[in-house]
Every structure is written in structure tokens, then in C-alpha cells.
């Protein structure tokens, strides 16, 4: 049986895949499936996908099914550059309004909800989930949330009179902590089935991250610019603004996010502990 690997179809996760030796992994029966985060979350939950970068919200929601691949994530300390609330009033005046949420996300839609409840004290916002199209989202709503490449493209084309809030920045300003949007997860039963392949894949993720952010950085940025437009300097600062590690501070930020998610009823159980995959040996617990 093969190992199915989900790949977020947004630019932010590229460093973990760009320098990967995919052919070598395909020879080990690995299959790659690019999808938006919400679809990867679903695929991991129902077992169609074995390993993926998934929304950190989805990881916490099924925390007993997964192990976290250490030292990998999509995080930011402050501005993330691709998770934006666009609104035609200042955020302080958003109580009682309608906000459209992208259907591609799980982490950011809940992040917006907890930010508006915990830090602004809003209790009366009407949320509607929609496909990520700014033209339709903005028509019937006072604000809308986009993530990933949809958010980047919208930030290039939205008129000046729309306010734009970066959720990573709002989180950092209020907590002093980084925010982790995606973690790399493996299903526990996939580790049992294919321990050696998971180990090879993990090493490929780590080496791709290291090479993409060092010697292959310019080549990666050039490829991204060719595909998505924008300037080299925009993409360089976008990637330099993201953090791909998962260490003490990221863990602290994520556990605080999980605490708020539970506090407001978006998790049925609190998440105080995360199983960390460790080379097929003993699993460690982070709490
Ligand atoms: C940085 C981003 O993080 C993404 C946000 C996600 C979410 O909101 O569920 C999931 C995966 C991340 O790659 C982004 O999409 O802009």
C-alpha cells in the first residue's frame, strides 16, 4: 500500500517541497496530492491522506489521531502577509456586521473568531462561509477573510478605501506570541504501516526546508514570481517573514490558540498535549 502525501496548493508551503527528491519518494510508493488546506484536513481525517501539512486547527481537533512532525510548520511572528481581513470599516467598528469567511481555511477562520471575541469583545458577528472570490464576498458583506494566494492576489487589487488587517499581526500584538497556521502531521496508523518511508519523507521535508531557504532561495523565488506575478522583492520578504520551524515559542503560541479555541466552544475537548513523531522510536509528548 502506498503512502499519500498532501501538499498545500499555496505558495506559503513551497519551501518544504521545493527541493524534495520526489522521484526517490515515488519509487518508495509515495503519492503527492496538492489541495487547499480545508480539503487536506478532510483527507487526513478520513484516512485518504497519510501525511500532510494541515491547518493547525484541524490537527488540534483530531489530536489523538495524529503525530506532529517536529521542527516543521508554517508560522509567523507578527505579519504573515497572506491572511487578511478586508473590511470597509475599521476593525473596532465591526461588531454587528456580516463577515464572509473563505472555505479554504480552518486555522484562520477560527483565529479571526477568537481575535474578535477575546481581544475586541465582539459577540454579535454574522459569519458566512463562501468560496474565496473577493468580488462575490464583498458584495453582501461588511468584511471578508482570505488566506494564501487568494489573499495575496486580493491585496494587490483591492481599492485603497478598504481596510486590511493581517491576522498574524493582530495575534502578535495581543499575545506577544507567534502563530502557527499549519503543522506537518502524520496519521498514527500510517506510522505503523510505513515507519521507514515516513522517516525518509521527514528527512526530505527537513532538507527541502533548509535548502529552499538558503542556496536555492533565489531559484525558488524566481519560480514563484514566474507563476504568480508580483516582484522578486515582494516574494523574498514574504518568505523571509514566514517561519518554518516548530520550537518552544511556536508550541507556546499554538497551545494558547488551542486554549482560546476551546474556551469559545470550537473544540469539544481541551488540547494540552501533542504527540511528536520521533524516527519510529519513542513518541514524545509536548505539553
Ligand atoms: C500562511 C498561511 O497559512 C495557511 C493557513 C491555513 C488555514 O487557515 O487553515 C492552513 C495552512 C496554512 O498554510 C496562508 O494560507 O496564508
Automatic annotation (TrEMBL):
Belongs to the MqnA/MqnD family. MqnA subfamily. It comes from Salibacterium salarium. Keywords: Lyase, Menaquinone biosynthesis. The keyword Lyase applies. GO terms for biological process: menaquinone biosynthetic process. Pathway: Quinol/quinone metabolism; menaquinone biosynthesis. Catalyzes the dehydration of chorismate into 3-[(1-carboxyvinyl)oxy]benzoate, a step in the biosynthesis of menaquinone (MK, vitamin K2). CDD domains: PBP2_Sco4506 (cd13634). The gene is mqnA. Its EC number is 4.2.1.151. This is Chorismate dehydratase. The keyword Lyase applies. It catalyses: chorismate = 3-[(1-carboxyvinyl)-oxy]benzoate + H2O. Transmembrane segments: none annotated. GO terms for molecular function: hydro-lyase activity.
Amino acid at each position: 500500500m502506498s503512502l499519500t502525501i498532501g501538499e498545500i496548493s499555496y505558495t506559503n508551503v513551497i519551501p518544504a517541497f521545493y527541493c524534495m527528491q520526489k522521484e526517490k519518494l515515488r519509487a518508495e510508493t509515495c503519492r503527492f496530492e496538492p489541495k487547499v488546506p480545508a480539503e487536506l484536513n478532510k483527507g487526513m481525517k478520513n484516512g485518504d491522506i497519510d501525511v500532510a501539512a494541515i491547518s493547525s486547527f484541524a490537527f488540534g481537533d483530531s489530536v489523538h489521531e495524529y503525530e506532529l512532525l517536529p521542527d516543521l510548520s508554517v508560522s509567523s511572528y507578527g505579519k504573515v502577509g497572506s491572511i487578511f481581513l478586508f473590511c470597509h470599516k475599521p476593525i473596532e467598528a465591526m461588531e454587528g456586521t456580516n463577515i464572509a469567511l473563505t472555505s479554504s481555511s480552518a486555522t484562520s477562520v477560527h483565529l479571526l473568531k477568537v481575535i474578535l471575541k477575546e481581544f475586541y469583545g465582539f459577540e454579535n458577528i454574522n459569519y458566512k462561509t463562501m468560496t474565496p472570490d473577493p468580488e462575490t464576498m464583498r458584495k453582501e458583506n461588511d468584511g471578508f477573510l482570505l488566506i494564501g494566494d487568494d489573499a495575496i492576489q486580493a491585496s494587490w487589487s483591492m481599492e485603497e478605501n478598504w481596510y486590511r488587517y493581517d491576522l498574524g499581526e493582530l495575534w502578535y500584538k495581543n499575545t506577544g506570541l507567534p502563530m502557527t497556521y499549519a503543522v506537518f502531521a502524520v496519521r498514527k496508523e500510517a506510522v505503523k504501516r510505513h515507519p521507514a518511508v515516513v522517516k525518509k519523507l521527514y528527512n526530505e521535508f527537513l532538507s527541502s526546508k533548509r535548502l529552499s531557504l538558503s542556496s536555492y532561495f533565489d531559484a525558488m523565488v524566481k519560480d514563484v514570481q514566474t507563476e504568480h506575478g508580483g516582484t522578486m522583492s515582494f516574494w523574498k520578504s514574504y518568505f523571509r517573514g514566514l517561519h518554518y520551524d516548530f520550537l518552544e515559542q511556536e508550541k507556546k503560541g499554538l497551545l494558547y490558540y488551542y486554549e482560546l479555541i476551546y474556551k469559545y466552544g470550537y473544540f469539544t475537548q481541551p488540547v494540552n498535549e501533542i504527540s511528536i513523531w520521533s524516527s519510529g522510536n519513542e513518541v514524545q509528548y509536548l505539553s
